[in-house]
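User: I would dearly like some help making sense of a protein record. I have put the entry right below:
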Amino acid sequence: MNLPVCYENEKFEPVYNYIHQAQQEFGASASSVMVIQNDRIVFERYHGFHHHKKGALVASDQSQFNIYSTRKTYVCLAMAMAALENNIDLSTPVYKIINELGKIELGEITLCDLATATGPKYFGKEQFEREGVQGFVVKALTGKVISQYLREKILNPLEMKGTEWASITTSEFSI
């Protein structure tokens, strides 16, 4: 991202302290905080290492981590955006959008339930994970897999060149 930098460190120190404390409590190897306000970076701090083993690299603005909880957030965002761009109310039951699973497997789970990651984690006799169902929704509404949709709608417009949506899968509905 090419955003101007105007650090206001003392103002965001409590946020950094909270994140750093959480890093220690959860036993994470690293933590970072970046605050963007009014289209400029006002705070940026990195702490820790890439892993707990000897010789690990120090975390920096060039570090990349596979963070599953962040991935879930992106998947939920993509699915909600796809619905809203198609003027589909988030209270719509998912079975009305996708063909891969029906009302029996999905029940009355709504797009809102998927977007907020509430309700069941697995669906149908094949035990599709929630992310897989969200992938079906994005594909049905946009014709694209989640990774492609996110690159077009989020990563590329924000010029996020130091991030990557990487997945290894053989499914046409990959995220």
Summary: Residues 50 and 65 are 8 Å apart (CA to CA). The first strand starts at residue 30 and ends at 37. The two ends are 23 Å apart (CA to CA). The beta strands are 30-37, 40-48, 122-123, 128-129.
